[in-house]
Amino acid sequence: MSQEFDCNYGEEEFSTIKAGIEAIEAVLTGEDIHAKERLLYCLDWYMDPYYQKNLSEIQEPLIELLQKIAVSDDDIGIVDEAFHLLEAYTEGPYEILERNMDSIPEEYKPTALYLINTNNK
Fold this sequence. Notes:
The protein is built from 7 helices and no strands. It is mainly α.
């Protein structure tokens, strides 16, 4: 995450999530690091089962998108948050992680292997 991590999400992030996976993808693949941070932090709230938010319509594409972010984003903080969301709130398969192990930062390879292997039991 950036040095000035922006976790103050609000209406913009709620609207993005409600707009669907295309809107989420536009932010997470965009250039605005603070927008990515806010959206990922907001997604944590949405994905946590405690808060009983229903993301079933976008669950599978969201898992795929988080994997893509984990293997492609240049910001290690964004990669960290993507792995956090995958590990805390999702189930595999994690085919994108498996196919792109070479692109995963070294410090996240154990987490990626854990996710892949947990799913293959």
